[in-house]
Amino acid sequence: MGFQKSKQFYFLIAVIIIGIALGSFFFFKFNKKTGENQLPATANKNADLEKIKSSYEPKIRNLYNDFLKAEDKLAATKKFKQALFDFIVPAERRDFHLNLVLALNKLESDLSAHSDDAKKTEEQIQELINSLK
Fold first, then answer.
1. pLDDT tens column, 58-71
2. Fewer CB within 10 Å, N or C, the chain?
3. Which residue stretches of the chain are H helix?
4. Within a 13 Å sphere around the CA of 14, how many CA atoms are in the beta-carbon half?
């Protein structure tokens, strides 16, 4: 009887291994994201990255100009900050983007509290914008 159970055990292990092998084969064979499709996708990603990099600065400047023109600074600050959350940020601009969001967040707090620091925070935001190349 012990011999019969070991045969069943080995048979079960063999079936599991064959199942895993077949599953892996079909997964990789029919997966659209592997193989030949990978190179064009990479080329498209590189083109998209260049587009993101080249459009980042003009978009920031446009948002900042809209912010400057606004009469309701608190609403404009919230709108500016929310727009920044929707951006795809190039790697080399992450620190700048984070600092800009933090400065806008501080300005929002200052404006909500009617703080005298609001003017100083606006100047910091202007310095950040001016630091863009």
1. 999 999 999 999 99
2. C
3. 2-30, 38-69, 73-85, 94-112, 118-130
4. 6
